[in-house]
Design goal:
This protein is α/β, with parallel strands linked by helices. It contains 11 helices and 10 strands.
Length: 319
């Protein structure tokens, strides 16, 4: 069961209805192949917005465009009216954090240390300060640890602060990823399949946690294949099919749309791209990412929220 804290994150603005995210005409091409085509999406303060679609629909590619892991071929992404820079760590610093399909924790670090890593965009101490360990550094370190403990209380993990991340049950590892993302004090949290592989009890706990995040004034954009989870939780839902937004609306509107039913059941509809085109897009994206990572084979380094410098492709979703 999720334990909520009484302390709201610093960036919280509950109930204002302020536009948080505006993706305008986002298109992502790999060579001559288009993985995401002219997608328009907004998220307002206090909203939970769902992004659904069959495997290979371009959902994670779109997330990567939003968070600076990919630079869109066309279009722009704005956060609170300011166009986001094409660097993932600067996107996190601006106020956008994310989790990934596949768990990316520092397995041999403690639960507390994992959350502290997420504070890196909110600390001002540099190399010399860390080496000299003066009063300013110690004060900043204490403040970061206090904030990290607030987030562990919020996610129900405070009692396991000194446990190694690899020893946590699967559901708690997912919670730890969310706590680490929240450590950057975001105004928008992007969750990529947060309930993948969970049992019904873990899924329910995750839903309660997402509601608690929303209640703190943080907008949420979530990709998920569990339709019950999405339709029970989201204010609006957008559907991607082969890289294009098919429909957007309330859960009731989306559930009753015949095109959505056809997309999930595999029934062709007018204008639907073919299977061969989808495979070509996936192959082109894999080639693009392999070229980006080819110069140096670096040791595995888990990614922190949206502020990662790792540019590896998502492995969970087929493009």
């Amino acid at each position: 069961m999720t334990t909520t804290t009484k302390t709201a994150p610093p960036n919280s603005t509950p109930g204002t209805g302020e536009n948080i995210l505006h993706a305008s005409g986002v298109t992502m091409r790999f060579g001559g192949l288009t993985a995401v085509r002219d997608v328009e999406l907004t998220v307002d303060s206090g909203e939970i917005v769902g992004l659904i679609g069959p495997n290979g629909a371009g959902k994670t590619t779109f997330f990567n465009c939003l968070t600076g892991l990919y630079i869109p071929t066309e279009g722009k992404v704005s956060y609170k009216g300011t166009v986001l820079p094409p660097k993932s760590h600067l996107v996190t610093k601006a106020g956008v954090a994310r989790t990934f399909q596949n768990i990316r924790l520092f397995a041999n670090m403690t639960v507390l240390e994992n959350v502290l890593v997420g504070r890196h965009t909110r600390t001002k101490e540099g190399l010399w300060s860390a080496l000299l360990r003066g009063p300013g550094f110690r004060k900043a370190e204490q403040a970061s640890e206090a904030r990290a403990m607030e987030l562990l209380e919020f996610t129900g993990l405070a009692a396991k602060r000194d446990h190694l991340a690899r020893n946590l049950p699967y559901g708690e590892q997912r919670k730890l990823e969310i706590a680490r993302a929240l450590a950057s004090d975001p105004g928008l949290l992007l969750l990529d399949e947060p309930t993948a592989g969970m049992n019904p009890q873990e899924t329910q706990a995750t839903q309660e946690l997402v509601f608690a995040v929303r209640d703190q004034g943080i907008a949420v954009l979530v990709i998920e294949h569990d339709m019950r989870f999405i339709f029970n939780m989201c204010d609006r839902v957008a559907v991607l099919v082969q890289g294009q937004k098919l429909v957007e609306g309330t859960p009731a509107v989306v559930q009753s749309d015949e095109r959505v039913v056809a997309a999930y059941l595999g029934t062709p509809f007018e204008g639907e791209p073919g299977e061969d085109e989808a495979k070509e897009v996936a192959a082109a994206e894999a080639h693009h990412d392999a070229a980006d990572t080819a110069p140096a084979a670096e040791p595995e380094t888990p990614t922190v929220a949206a502020g990662t410098t790792e540019n590896a492709p998502e492995e969970g979703e087929k493009k």
